[in-house]
Specification:
The complex is a heterodimer of chains A (649) and B (302). Chain A is built from 24 helices and five strands. Chain A is mainly alpha-helical. In chain A, the strands form two sheets. A two-stranded antiparallel ribbon of chain A has the order 1-2. Chain A has a two-stranded antiparallel sheet with strand order 4-5. The longest helix of chain A has 34 residues. Chain B starts with a helix and ends with a helix. The model of chain B has no long low-confidence stretch (mean pLDDT 89). Classes of the chains: A mainly alpha (649), B mainly alpha (302). Strand 3 of chain A pairs parallel with strand 1 of chain B.
Amino acid sequence: MTLGLLLLIAFLALSASIVVGFRRPRIWLALTVAGAMLGMTAALRVLLGGESGEWQSGFLLGGETLHLRLDGVSALFLMLVAVIGGTGAVYSHEYWADQHNPSTAPRGRVCWSALLICMGLVLLVSNGLHFLIVWELFALCGYFLITLDRERNGVRAAGWLYLVASHAGTLGLFAFFALLASRTGSWNLGPMRAHAELAPLFWLALFGFGVKAGFFPLHIWLPSAHANAPSHVSAIMSGVAIKLGVYGIVRFSGWLPIPPAAGWVVTGLGATSALLGIAFAFAQNDFKRLLAYCSVENIGIIMIGVGVALLAMTHGNAPWGRLALAGALLHVWNHGAFKALLFFGAGSVLHATGTREMSRLGGLARVMPWTAGLFALGTLAVAGLPPLNGFVSEWLLYLGLFAVVTGKGVTAWIAMPAAIMLAMAGAIALASFAKAGAVIFLGAARTQPAAQAHECGYWMRGPMLVLASICVVIGLAPVLCWPAVAGAVASWHPTWAIGEPPVSLVTLGSAQIALAIMILAAAAWLWWTAYHNGLQRGPTWDCGYATPRARMQYTSASFAGIVSGWFRWVLQPERKARRPRGDFPAEAIRLEHMPETVLEHIIAPVGGLIMQASSTVLRLQHGRLQFYILYVLAGLIGIGLFVFWGCIP
Amino acid sequence: MIVMRDLMLRLVLWLLLAPLLPGIINKVKAWVAGRRGPPVLQLYYDLAKLWRKGVVMSNLASPGFIIGPAVAWVALIGAALLMPLGPAGSVVSFRGDVLLLIYLLALARFCTAWAAMETGSAFEGMGAAREVSYAVLTEAAIIAAVLSLIVHTGSVSLSTMLAPSAGAGAALLVAGLFTVLLAENCRVPFDDPNTHLELTMIHEVMVLDHSGPPLAAILHGASIKLLLFSILLVQAVLPMGDLSPLAAAGALAVGVLLVTVGVGLVESLLARFAFRRVPLLLTTAFLLCVFALLVAWKGDAP
């Protein structure tokens, strides 16, 4: 079967699933999963088989001929769309089932299939005008999915913010594609590295796609949208949708010439985004917001890799760029896999307890062992710990940065701070996920709903198992992914073919396998010894503290206290406290709210000023006819004067 | 096969030698205080006894309570096996192995913190929070130190990175890495390894509820970590590659002994810092490593 046919059938299957989605959930699921599998097959054939496809037809859409293309870069992202799209569909079958959400579930299914189609088309179309159209449709599908549960105020506000931010980005893209088309004389996209005059357009693309990718400080829409959306939607938004922003930046920095400062700016933005994103994540008390901010961090990590690749391009195609880009592209997959896994896990917790506040949970590991185990695996992966996949891509990225440093060029001055910031971000990520996993799943249940939680069903567990095994496989056998990543790098820049995996990656793979075996052996041995010697259960000793209560446990805010103190200058926490007074204090309150600093302290005041100016202007519009006639008269006189003076030479 | 044999030999060496260091430190402390002190081999006796004992596990704890220490132990042993040993070099050496070592230490930290949180105790939560928070600064310091070695030697693999001496920035690097060693191994002035109560609220408090074999694994892992950091410090500074094998082995042994005695002396002469000042001291360590990096950059610039 040819590549084109595969994609066509996938498209037809997904289109059919839109039609049946309203009434027939099971047929919808089968069709969606089939479409995702077909898309995955096509992507794999490009990535592993080295095929690539380009299709042009005479069919006109908006005055432009259809032009589709599937190469290494787009196939890498298409793979991600297919995997998360398929697993998310299965997950939603139970998570957002008809019996619990009779009014919104059918709409959710239809939007899901439409979103998958639009995301696939964004990756395939190779015409500026059509790209804008599918980009807009993709953003709208995202909006309808985020606001599925629109009865709640928070959801509507989050959706609105997403829509506005998304359109601000699209505005940048409008300018980008329009200027591109006017300079080149055609809407067709493709490699045009020879046109040096196009380089400044990169900044427009960086803004337009950056809003979607959500790196700091363009991330304002991301935390609330990802936190308020249903969890399977959060998973695809966080795992895939924001990656399409990365796709745009990678795609057009590969096709167009780039300004000399691009590498410096992107690396700097990436490092800042990594450190501040995770600092915000650590301070959150809502576990879905924590995961959302962690996406800001991971996009930052990816951007560091892309930035180093751009630096390499402007500094004589240095070989370290390939390593960093390979790390960044592998991290695109890795982050997709573990972030979707974590959001699915978060969804199960939310489904079982009905709260997103970590400090109301606790002790769920006993009632939800599957979710707890898989979530724990996800936290290890997202913290970049060996032997899982997050470590492999961060390792490649570090190697790229270290190679920049050993090159001793001027570029080392950005690589060294980036490496240090990446290390700090890694350590805070570890702290954040130690906190999230521990406060949600360990210890004693802090509230009644947490004590009465229940394990999720097979439809939710299955997708999590699939994603967890992806995390393990990429971690233990990184060499398997190498051809895909190398192919993507080669199609990003034709002279950058990297061929065989580096020897150190092969050794790393065996070291990871050895480590995994040793971990299993040691765990079994220690467990057996403990059992053999006699294992008793008792209350927590806790230095002999007599009557500990569940509420005395360390909460998420207390866990994050030290580090959020260091980052107070940017976190700007709002505290409200009433200390206990007198001998028999009646009440004491301590409330802490972590605002989204950029939104509440920068965007909102500026928006307020604009609103004020607008309402001042609005006063002219009062409905009195006499004044309107006066305006017309003044206008006419003004024009007359203008013409009069214009005539005098 | 030779690799396997070498690996096994090293494993036995690390497992057997590591518990010696805390004993030496305690002897030094006792000597300064004019006491006789526990025998140097005390930790061996403790470990042997703990390994035979039963386990009391909190009602709240899940299997992670025992798996956590096991993973942490393996991670520390794995990190130790990556470390080159003076003239013997390293068994497994590849580009970027230094990162695997750093991240294995992070894995150990994560698992210890996880196991501590299993009990639902506020004390242990406090310890875990402090452990992972202060690690942010130590990790930055370690990466800065590694970068300075990378700049100095132009290599990203431990065995070649640690072979020459650290050059002009050696003094800065010693000060920075020694501070990191004290912080990472719960020694005074960051933490007090002698008490297990709320006064020592970083590493030691995380293991309050552990008993029997898991506690043995934790204690043994901690001693491996101490030996690992001492060896790293000594090799980063001394020109191991330029010495004859015998001299290098001797230098390594003497160096590690000196570091251990140094830790003991610091512990005897200094009081534990107030918690407010711990980040300041760690930031100082980080800055020392950054200066070492700058010196290495300046000194080796073409």
